[in-house]
Fold:
Amino acid sequence: MAAFTHFTTPYDEDTTPFSDTLSRLCRSLNLCPPMFRGRLLPSDVPTVERWEIETTIEGRLVEPVTDTVVYLKGYPSWEDGVVMAMQEALARIVYMHGGSIDVESGRQFFGRRSSLGFPMRTSGSREGLSWIQIQFEDMEMYAYKVETLLCAEMRDLDWTKHTIKENNKKYQQLEKLSEWLADKRDALFAGTVQLKKDNEKLLDKTLDQEAVILALRGQCAHLARQIPPSPPQPATPVVHAVQQVLAIPQPPATQEDQVMEEEDPEEVEFILPNGETRLIVAEEEDTPATNTRSHTPRMSARTYRNLFKTKI
Structure:
């Protein structure tokens, strides 16, 4: 909180409103003149000026004894605030020391305020009051209402100016944001134009590549029609011999042939492509484990046929 920078007290012959009257009243009541201290309140709005004035009314040390009263109030300026503070101090002193005021001075008819600062008005009928007392009471009520309205207007004005200042800050921020968005929009527009150009180039390149692919397909089809068909591959000698053996018709087997076949089935000796010698038998049998009549391995015709189906 800022320190008090302005000080004043009422004195005789002072031209400030209520100063001379307040000084003479305090002297008649054996009171010290009230003291007023003011300080400028800090504000975030440069054009707003608000003052806080502290009023000190010293208590009376002789009978009737009173306590010291100190209170703070806000005012629009130091000059106007001192006038209103002196008028309120005068009304408070009249209320606290009304019984000690000289009746002939007429100061007992001044407006009165309680210790809390509220104006005091005679309740009920005021027919027995002098018109001067009625006038002063009404003027005190009016002064209190004016002070109340002034404080309310000051608060509203402070809030309005503060709101205007904050709105100006937001407006400046919005202007900066608008400029940034405009720059961003221009950059995006330029990027969009460049992308359209790149897409057009890619589309032209794609169309050219599709034309090349179609031309290559036509050339491939033309070359395929000019290639002669490949001649059939002749059968190898081994395959031809196996086919002749397998095509030999077999006469019906007699009982003796069946006995002989059981003892020694028909066998044909051939040389495989890898150089090995095999006995090909017509029956579905391979070389038994107990074969003692021939040392040449044997295989069935079906096994041999399947072998050459795999090899060819």
